[in-house]
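Thread: Newbie trying to understand structure tokens

Hi all, I'm a second-year student working on a class project, and my supervisor (Dr. K.) asked me to get a predicted structure for one chain before our next meeting. I've only ever worked with sequences, so writing a 3D structure as a token string is new to me. If someone could post the tokens and maybe explain what I'm looking at, I'd be very grateful. Here's the chain:
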Amino acid sequence: MNRFFCLFCLLPGSFSFVFQPAFALDLIDEKLQLHAMISMSYDYMDSDVSSTAANELTDDNLVDEDVGYGGNPSRLNIEDVIPINDGLDFFYAGSKLVVWDGSRDKLLYTRSYSAGVRGSFGSLSVGKQDTPFRTVGAQFAILRSTIAHRNALIGATTDEGNRLNRRAEKSILWTNSTDLAGGNLEWKLIYSVDSLRTSGNIDNDKRAVLGFGINHSSDRYTLDLAHEQWEQIYESRINATRTAIKRRINELEIGFLYEIIKQDMVPGAISLPTLDRNAFGVNAAYEIGNITYGIQILSAESYAGSTDTGATMYSIGAEKVFNASLSGSVGYTQTKNEANGAFQGIDGVRGDLGTLAGGAPRAVGLGLRYRF
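---
Reply by user tm_fold:
Sure, no problem. This is what the structure looks like when written as tokens:
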């Protein structure tokens, strides 16, 4: 009964089981896992705008040399596997964001949730799930716990920030894998006929998404490829392809990512095709003991029909693992926009740091993460 109580609580709007972990862990077998992550940071941010612009413009993302506590969504997660018979399991998982700093309207936000079955055919699940396109970006990225998050440029636009690193509502996802060429080959297919919501109460019917992903990994490298097509999103149809490769050489890991996004606007659209552009990224991470040092460069071209709307983001940082639960990080990032570009300096992980056309927003941050 307790398991199905936990499953019921995965529905958006409730996560009350998280506050009863002792009962869940004692009464349910060890396959049930409850996790939490608390994030804290102290950041310096500058939008590269005048103090007058930062104070008078209505954009809350504009700041003039601001120092203080950063917006750090923490997480509450649950995972469980229930055997049905030999070779067939039922599983469910869910994740909530906890926003402590008042930067959003609510304290709890649904991050993801899914339920499904797993067997010799792979796994088949339904819920609010990562698209393969999003997964490629997440696996490529380094410096994830610092202010230098990829969402400011990869899958982002010059005027609205992150737009295409999405999870699909009411989606069905099939995943399977096999051994191949000295490594593991995994493939994913995802589909949803109603994949986005502008709020928790309004459905946007026919915002369909169809996507696939392929991953081949071994001890030395990881190769990813994903494509997705969105219908009736941002007044357009979008076809997006993202590929990435990571190569490991002892303590050094080098990564490269390239994405191509084509945005076809519907007749009468008011918006501009700001997602219709290519972008790439390169990064490197070097591990010495319990410290990982990272450097990353991301670049987005001008969108179709525009000039000088691109940007390049330069980031450097380090993360130190103190023990299995506690880690700390430091990072610096700067986004250098072209004359008509206004890509953000930060998008999501520590709030948003905007700028005006041609700006070069920058930030330095110290962070702590505690997992239990």
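A couple of things are worth pointing out once you decode it. The radius of gyration is 21 Å. The helical segments are 2-8, 21-27, 51-56, 132-140. Feel free to ask follow-ups in this thread.
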